[in-house]
Design brief:
Among the domains are: 154 residues, no CATH class; 47 residues, no CATH class; 109 residues, Leucine-rich Repeat Variant (Alpha Horseshoe), CATH 1.25.10. Helix content is 58%, strand content 5%. A 5-stranded antiparallel beta sheet has the order 3-2-1-4-5. Strands 6-7 form a two-stranded antiparallel ribbon. Helix 9 runs parallel beside helix 11, helix 13 crosses helix 15 and helix 24 packs parallel to helix 26. The N and C termini lie far apart (82 Å).
């Protein structure tokens, strides 16, 4: 069965319910591991809590016999964790435990036994191993390798065998001659004598071992007596084993990351050619991506330094670097930046700038997933440095369906500045999200007036007061006849009266700031329209005030003429405008 609700969990046995509860605790613990650095007290606390809970359950329930599939974890025959797909036509509800089954399955673990009397130290080591493999998909060590290195006697696993499939015969071993695959396969059992003497893959179209790989071996002229040879080797076995264990412990005492730079530089010194640099650069990329996934700056920094030595222009392995970075779990990095150490943000920005253009996509993705402003600020800063010389690298993300991504990219372009970004900003000048266009207007403030004017004029049709105000604020910095004509066209448009009153006032006020005598006839017409039956209106009063702001003799003459108009509303508007001038 596959529990998909709290009701299904309650149908499990008490032991399975307790195990399911521990795996939920484990999922929350792994999330804390991803968010915080290892020396954080929160990490230490949740790790100890998970270990204590596991030790208590094993003592009360006995051994745990666990099985794993890509989407489920079984305790004996009961499903205690499930990430199964929903029924057709229904929406899947994400659970915190969804990634647990594949965490074990992806590394080849199929069965795992936790012995009841396992020492606390072994259980703690087991949790630390889960912490290492749960940090990201680019971990250098898999679960099986880390368990083998830890040498845990109370944690037993059954993993997928690593042996290669070898065809030992041109005929199916034990199968019918007409079977689909006529080649014999051996997975576990040793081949019999007849199979060894069979044709080893020499038939046309078959696979397998080839005679050429061993037919030219020279046969020994004499043989060895196995018992006597073993007797001669046995006295040395103990010392040899001790030497091997000591050498292994010495090697394990030094982190491989500390040895890698010297090794790779030594290989380069032996053959400093382009092919060698390309191969070594590709080997460093995996190390760099893993360190970045874990935000392990002590490893990421030397890896980047080494990559810069091998391929400073990213000419040899730039594509491989971009591919590796695209596979990083940016959601985990964003969550860690939102909740973790703020100092990581500065390191991340510096690191991304050091990586160069292949890291732009990664940086944008982290920016898009981050919830806290400080995390987004760090990524935006990195993008400003990365794209300062070639802002066109950001063009693809101006078409992103997420408006907040587009807004932040426009923000970056505004900080880069220069006429080169104008064609890119043109692509978002009619973006449906007002917040994107507000950011566009701010970015245009750093562009020369002649370059920005057409884009700013396009924003005069905005119905968002903040957007229109920002655009008018930049347009009115200079008395430009083109601006006056554009604003006047908006005022004279048939739909002008449908716009909000504060927008209408803003346009009239801006017109008064930039217009000259060319706008007086149109404003005078708005002031006097209606004749004898004119009534007070926003447009009439605003037109009178605009004439007063223009203040030229022609504009003032229009106001004085309005004082003698037949309509009371016209005279009142002119008087109010002139009175406001006197008070000012």
């Amino acid at each position: 069965m596959t529990p998909s609700s709290a009701q299904a969990i309650r149908e499990l046995s008490p032991e399975a319910q307790a195990a399911a509860g521990w795996f939920r605790q484990l999922a929350r613990t792994l999330r804390v591991f991803r968010l915080y650095r290892g020396d954080n007290p929160v990490v230490v606390g949740v790790q100890e809590a998970a270990t204590d809970a596991l030790a208590g359950l094993l003592q009360t329930q006995g051994d745990w016999q666990l099985r794993f599939s890509p989407t489920e974890v079984f305790l004996q025959d009961e499903v205690i964790v499930s990430a199964a797909e929903p029924a057709p036509g229904t929406e899947r509800v994400l659970k915190i435990t969804d990634q647990i089954p594949f965490l074990f399955y992806r590394d080849g673990v199929r069965r795992l036994t936790l012995v009841a009397d396992a020492p606390r130290a072994e259980l703690d080591a087991f949790i630390r191993i889960l912490r290492a493999v749960g940090s990201g998909s680019d971990s250098q060590d898999d679960f099986v390798t880390l368990l083998w290195q830890a040498n845990l006697s109370h944690v037993e696993i059954e993993a997928v065998p690593l042996e290669q499939t070898i065809y030992l015969s041109t005929q199916a071993g034990g199968g019918s001659p007409g079977s689909v695959d006529p080649r014999g396969q051996v997975f576990a059992g040793s081949p019999s004598g007849a199979e060894i003497r069979a044709d080893l893959g020499q038939a046309s179209g078959t696979q397998g071992l080839h005679r050429d790989t061993f037919d030219d071996w020279a046969l020994p002229e004499t043989g060895a007596d196995v018992p006597s040879a073993f007797a001669r080797l046995e006295p040395c076995a103990g010392a040899t084993r001790s030497d091997f264990v000591a050498a292994c412990e010495q090697e394990m005492a030094v982190e491989w990351a500390a040895q890698a730079p010297g090794l790779l530089r030594g290989l380069l010194a032996m053959d400093d050619c382009e092919d060698t640099r390309r191969l070594l650069a590709r080997s460093v990329i995996g190390w760099l991506a893993t360190a970045l996934q874990d935000t392990a700056w002590s490893e990421a920094t030397p890896a980047l330094e080494l990559l810069n030595e091998l391929d400073p222009e990213r000419r040899l392995a730039g594509e491989q670097l971009a591919t590796a970075l695209s596979a990083i779990d940016t959601q985990a990095i964003a969550e860690r930046f939102d909740e973790g150490d703020p100092s990581d943000l500065n390191r991340f920005a510096a690191f991304i700038v050091g990586v160069g253009a292949p890291a732009i996509g990664l940086c944008v993705d982290v920016m898009a997933r981050a919830d806290k402003a400080r995390a987004r600020a760090a990524t935006v800063t990195a993008l400003c440095y990365l794209c300062a010389d070639d802002p066109g690298l950001l063009a693809p993300w101006l078409l992103d369906p997420r408006w907040h991504v587009v807004r932040n990219i426009v923000f970056v372009l505004g900080h880069i500045g220069g006429p080169g970004i104008v064609p890119m900003l043109q692509t978002v000048s009619h973006h449906p999200e007002p917040r994107v266009r507000r950011q566009l207007v701010q970015a245009l403030g750093a562009i020369p007036a002649e370059e920005r004017h057409p884009l700013l004029v396009e924003q005069l049709d905005a119905r968002d007061p903040q957007l229109l105000g920002a655009a008018l604020n930049i347009l009115t910095r200079d008395r430009d006849p083109r601006t006056a004509r554009a604003i006047l066209a908006c005022i004279q448009a048939p739909a002008f009266e449908t716009r909000e009153e504060n927008i209408q006032r803003a346009l009239f006020n801006a017109l008064g700031e930039v217009a000259n005598d060319d706008a007086v006839p149109a404003l005078e017409e708005l002031l006097n329209q209606g004749g004898w039956f004119a009534r007070r209106s926003l447009q009439r009063v605003a037109a009178a005030r605009a004439l007063r702001r223009i203040g030229t003799p022609r504009a003032m003459a229009a106001l004085e003429a309005a004082l003698r108009a037949r309509g009371e509303a016209v005279r009142a508007a002119a008087l109010e405008a002139l009175g406001a001038k006197g008070r000012s």
